């Protein structure tokens, strides 16, 4: 095994907040392995834009809701690079509907992708981090897991669960010098909001005390901080970055 410099694993890193996190981490001098499901072009573009002589950036097609796929990818990466310094459990989907109209399939898809994926990745990588005696885990929650949102019972359930998972893992892994925190973004301007009209954006922003949507780089900066020495005595916490929406 050839152990490389500090590297970070980011699930769901080809677009949106995930891509912003990948970029910020490479800028912070980490090498990054990120996963994606369907965005081959976006993944290759991110690799080309961010890879350099000092840090590698590579995308891997992987269904994070499938334990066998996650275990196989984790084994391949650790055989070459050793255990990651950090795991960013970012992958997530929505299947919105009021509970009375929500199908069991859409409930299960969100649980599998948003919550099970975090379990699979954490299980797959933490043994090596424990053996090394340091590391970080950041779980990407959401303000929806704190304040709720109609039509998103499945999504909110997974994001609230990640906060509970964060607290429990922080207690379990602290003695190995592994810190576990979560980030709860509010309404962030991504590809999903790009299709909204100006009027719709203004209406949404009017609900936020700071009167604007959040930026991807603001979430990425929080994640980068949680991997830095500046947060070395911080674990078990949820950092809400929502412009005051949940206040």
UniProtKB/TrEMBL annotation:
Query: What are the alphabetically sorted keywords of the record?
Result: Oxidoreductase
Reading the lineage from the top rank, the first entry is: Bacteria
* Entry keyword annotation includes Signal: no
**GO terms classed as biological process:** monocarboxylic acid metabolic process
Alphabetical list of InterPro entries matching this protein: KR_dom, NAD(P)-bd_dom_sf, Sc_DH/Rdtase_CS, SDR, SDR_fam
Classification via Pfam families:
adh_short_C2
For this chain, the family text in UniProt reads:
Belongs to the short-chain dehydrogenases/reductases (SDR) family.
Its name, as the record gives it, is: SDR family oxidoreductase
| Natural source organism | Zoogloea oleivorans
């Amino acid at each position: 095994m050839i152990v490389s410099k500090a590297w970070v694993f980011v699930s769901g890193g080809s677009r949106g907040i995930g891509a912003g996190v990948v970029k910020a981490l490479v800028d912070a001098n980490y090498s990054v392995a990120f996963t994606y499901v369907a965005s081959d072009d976006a993944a290759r573009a991110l690799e080309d834009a961010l890879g350099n002589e000092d840090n590698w950036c590579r995308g891997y097609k992987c269904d994070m809701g499938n334990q066998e796929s996650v275990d196989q990818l984790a084994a391949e990466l650790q055989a070459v690079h050793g255990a990651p310094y950090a795991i960013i459990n970012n992958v997530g989907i929505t299947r919105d509907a009021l509970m009375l109209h929500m199908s069991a399939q859409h409930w299960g898809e969100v649980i599998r992708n948003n919550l099970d994926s975090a379990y699979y990745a954490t299980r797959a990588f933490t043994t090596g981090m424990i053996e090394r005696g340091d590391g970080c885990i950041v779980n990407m929650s959401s303000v929806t897991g704190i304040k709720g949102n109609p039509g998103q019972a499945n999504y909110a359930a997974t994001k609230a669960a990640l906060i509970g998972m964060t607290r429990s893992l922080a207690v379990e892994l602290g003695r190995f010098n592994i810190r576990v925190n979560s980030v709860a973004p509010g309404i962030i301007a991504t590809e999903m909001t790009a299709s909204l009209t100006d009027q719709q954006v203004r209406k949404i922003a009017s609900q936020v005390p700071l009167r604007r949507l959040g930026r991807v780089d603001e979430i990425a900066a929080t994640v980068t901080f949680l991997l830095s020495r500046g947060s070395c005595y911080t674990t078990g916490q949820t950092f809400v970055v929502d412009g005051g929406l949940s206040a």
